[in-house]
């Protein structure tokens, strides 16, 4: 058995998927079958070719249908504009491909639900990319809650501050088009919302206090292709920004309350994910700018000396032992490794390796729909002066 791999989308996240598939067979014991790196697809031919060459894929394509029609390709990552997910994923599932689709699952809740329906009827495996559960620090906090070290959660705080949109001369792209809620909330809020339920261990039941802000109301039209969050030459013409630069809301998980804040215009925070959970036995926090560490506080020590301590993550924590080439404390790792763990988990599932012998499975399309239902509830709350919306 061998597995043929393709990635549709050659931009920033597409490169992360391509690199992750390359790294995946080097993680843990070499139980995966032979992997063949077949194609990188993108409508931007030079970009597709450059990404394929960089990561050792055999060819590049400018039409996703060429990948769907190739019988030598079995696994496909879909890493393109959210509005294109439904069409492309439907075509891939019709062709019998296993699909790993980037978050959020689609641009609209209706499209996401249709994708989940197609996935349930498909013979192949479908998963959505929500990588942060693979961060060893976040997984460790989750374990400390589950095993009683931290105990019952009292309340949760999460923010995801980014600055990729803080420059008013940053070019307009698909990221800045669409209804309120499809901007910063969908882009980084999808991660933050998913992580909250993963860590707390309960589903969100209501959201309230939803509020949006568009801080930069118009952006210049680019003269060339926009790749990821990158800059490019711009024209004198400007177009309106249609969606949210900033969003905030609160949520209720059973008897646990959480607060959330996301931004793409938070200057000085290139990738500022931060979660903090307060529990009956103490508290813990994770900061993306120090991903090899978590902060842990436990009751019971001398009050005069007790406080948050820094825990350096190593072989005693999830994903590190046997996965990292140097699986010891202090070596360091970051978000790129999360993509590699995600790819490894997906390939293990495709290869038929039993779940008990594999990394935890990736999120399902139904999970992706649930995530988007929460985001839609936040948008509904914001459109109605912060009213409480039940899920």
Automatic annotation (TrEMBL):
One Pfam assignment: GFO_IDH_MocA
Name of the featured protein: Dehydrogenase
Domain Gfo/Idh/MocA-like oxidoreductase N-terminal: 4-129
Keyword annotations of the record: Oxidoreductase
InterPro entries: Gfo/Idh/MocA-like_OxRdtase_N (IPR000683), Gfo/Idh/MocA_oxidrdct_glycsds (IPR050463), GFO_IDH_MocA-like_dom (IPR055170), NAD(P)-bd_dom_sf (IPR036291)
Regions crossing the membrane: none
Annotated organism of origin: Tessaracoccus flavus
Chain ranges of the GFO/IDH/MocA-like oxidoreductase domain: 139-284
GO molecular function list: nucleotide binding; oxidoreductase activity
Keyword Oxidoreductase tagged: yes
Entry annotated with the keyword Oxidoreductase: yes
Matching SUPFAM superfamilies: Glyceraldehyde-3-phosphate dehydrogenase-like, C-terminal domain, NAD(P)-binding Rossmann-fold domains
Highest rank taxon of the organism: Bacteria
């Amino acid at each position: 058995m061998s597995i043929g791999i393709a990635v549709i989308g050659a931009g920033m996240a597409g490169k992360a998927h391509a690199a992750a598939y390359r790294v995946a067979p080097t993680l843990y014991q070499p139980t995966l079958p032979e992997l063949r790196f077949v194609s990188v697809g993108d409508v931007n031919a030079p970009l597709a070719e450059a990404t394929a060459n960089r990561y050792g894929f055999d060819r590049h394509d400018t039409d996703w249908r060429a990948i769907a029609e190739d019988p030598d390709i079995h696994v496909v990552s879909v890493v393109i504009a959210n509005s294109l997910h439904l069409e492309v994923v439907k075509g891939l599932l019709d062709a019998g491909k296993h699909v790993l689709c980037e978050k959020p699952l689609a641009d609209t809740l209706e499209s996401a639900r249709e994708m989940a329906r197609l996935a349930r009827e498909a013979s192949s495996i479908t998963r959505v990319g929500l990588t942060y559960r693979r961060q060893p620090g976040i997984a460790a906090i989750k374990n400390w809650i589950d095993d009683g070290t931290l105990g019952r959660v009292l309340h949760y705080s999460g923010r995801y501050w980014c600055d990729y949109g803080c420059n008013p001369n940053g070019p307009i792209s698909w990221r800045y088009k669409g209804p309120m809620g499809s901007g910063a909330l969908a882009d980084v809020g999808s991660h933050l919302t998913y992580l909250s339920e993963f860590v707390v261990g309960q589903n969100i039941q209501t959201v309230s206090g939803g509020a949006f802000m568009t801080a930069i109301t118009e952006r210049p039209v680019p003269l060339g292709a926009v790749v990821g969050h990158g800059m490019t030459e711009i024209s004198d013409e400007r177009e309106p920004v249609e969606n949210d630069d900033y969003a905030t809301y609160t949520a209720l998980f059973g008897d646990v309350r959480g607060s959330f804040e996301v931004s793409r215009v938070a200057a000085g925070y290139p990738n500022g994910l931060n979660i903090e959970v307060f529990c009956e036995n103490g508290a813990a926090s994770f900061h993306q700018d120090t991903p090899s560490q978590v902060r842990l506080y436990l009751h019971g020590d001398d009050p005069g000396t007790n406080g948050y301590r820094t825990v350096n993550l190593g072989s005693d924590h999830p994903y590190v032992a046997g996965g990292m080439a140097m699986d010891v404390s202090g070596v360091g790792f970051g978000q790129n490794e999360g993509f590699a763990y995600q790819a490894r988990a997906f390939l293990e599932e495709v290869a038929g390796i039993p779940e008990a012998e594999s990394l935890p499975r990736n999120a399902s399309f139904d999970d992706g729909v649930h995530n988007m239902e929460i985001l839609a509830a936040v948008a509904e709350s914001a459109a109605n002066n912060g009213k409480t919306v039940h899920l």
